[in-house]
Design a protein that fits this description.
globular; 39% helix; 2 domains; single chain; alpha/beta; Dihydrodipicolinate Reductase, domain 2; six-stranded parallel sheet
């Protein structure tokens, strides 16, 4: 198949390398707003990648599906342009910067009936998938506690912070999606807090660099989500599930960026994960392989716009909770949709 790719920054260029290595992908048509970016990617993958000047040329080039890795503000327009052309879409999260815009995209996508897959790559991590199966099979008994952690090794650039929408919308939302995906439950209430003791850019933008949130699920289970922009030992993403019959974890490999102080303990023994692209390289590949199956019509979207909107509502509730120092029910922030 022939795929289009729009957006060739850090993650877009990474996706280009992954896509050109997939057996199902014969060729890739790429474009970016930055002068020379598309041509540079084409030169790195001779014979597999064609560079064009813009979205219109990509959509008119006979592609079977579109991958969107452009800036967040362009996501709604690009998703809908592809959907209007009848093309399946893979789009990096979020669907849109504003929740109301995401709901509008959801309505239009559902009306069109064209499959759209949103890029929550952790769903394709082998251990996370196994955790979901452990819950679904009943092996854990009654699930009572979930712990999900994302710790970045260093803050993103100031310009990124200014446009990110805050730590809950940008970073924690991966944890929120994972909680929903693994447990099969909906979040009904949140209580969030945070601090900004590092670079002043966070406080200047009404953001925090370290956060914690307690999520109450619709069956009474509790999920604890913690995040920080300052984890000098490496990129730490972990998930714990605790039930009445068993407890399991994802992310406890030899590259876990955590140093044990227990006498005689040698775990973890490997070099710590440094960033999301090395921690989730296999998951990204599996995610894009899944999209080729969506394009081929052999499977439905494994992460729909509706899924992404639900994770977004949790982020909105946490943002409000942080600002007003109180518990917030997700229905309180939900607009234009049916309460969970």
């Amino acid at each position: 198949m022939r795929l289009g790719l729009i957006g060739l920054g850090r993650i877009g260029a990474f996706h280009a390398a992954t896509l050109t290595g997939l057996e199902a992908v014969d060729s890739l048509v790429v474009a970016d707003v930055a002068p020379g970016a598309a041509q540079a990617v084409a030169e790195r993958h001779p014979g597999r990648v064609v560079a064009v000047s813009g979205t219109g040329e990509v959509l008119a080039s006979g592609v079977d599906g579109l991958v969107v890795a452009a800036a967040t503000d362009a996501h709604p327009e690009l998703i809908l342009a592809a959907v209007d052309a009848g093309l399946p879409v893979f789009c990096e999260k979020p669907v849109a910067r504003a929740a109301a815009d995401a709901v509008d995209v959801l309505r239009r996508v559902e009306a069109a009936g064209v499959p759209v897959q949103i890029g929550y790559n952790r769903r394709f991590d082998a251990a996370v998938a196994a955790a979901r199966e452990a819950v679904a099979s009943g092996a854990l008994g009654r699930l009572h506690t979930v712990r999900s952690t994302t710790m970045d090794p260093a803050p993103p650039p100031a310009a990124y912070v200014a446009g990110s929408g805050g730590i809950f919308r940008d970073c924690s939302v991966h944890d929120f999606d994972t909680v929903r995906f693994v447990t099969g439950r909906e979040v009904v209430e949140v209580y969030a807090t945070g601090s900004a003791n590092g670079d002043p850019v966070f406080a200047e933008n009404g953001d925090v660099d370290t956060s914690a949130a307690v999520l109450t699920l619709d069956d009474g289970a509790l999920a604890l989500v913690s995040n920080t922009r300052y984890n000098a030992r490496g990129y730490d993403v972990r998930l714990e599930l605790h039930g009445t019959a068993d407890s399991v974890a994802a992310g406890l490999d030899d590259r876990l960026p955590l140093r044990s102080l227990e006498p005689g303990t040698t775990f973890p023994a490997g070099a710590p994960h440094e960033f999301f692209m090395d921690r989730f390289a296999d998951a990204y590949r599996a995610e894009l392989c899944a999209f080729t199956e969506v394009v081929a019509g052999t499977r439905p979207s494994p992460c729909t716009v509706a899924d992404a909107v639900e994770a977004g509502w949790i982020a909105e509730a946490c943002t409000l909770s942080l600002r007003e120092h109180r518990p917030v029910r997700v229905d309180e922030v939900r607009t234009g949709g049916t309460p969970a």
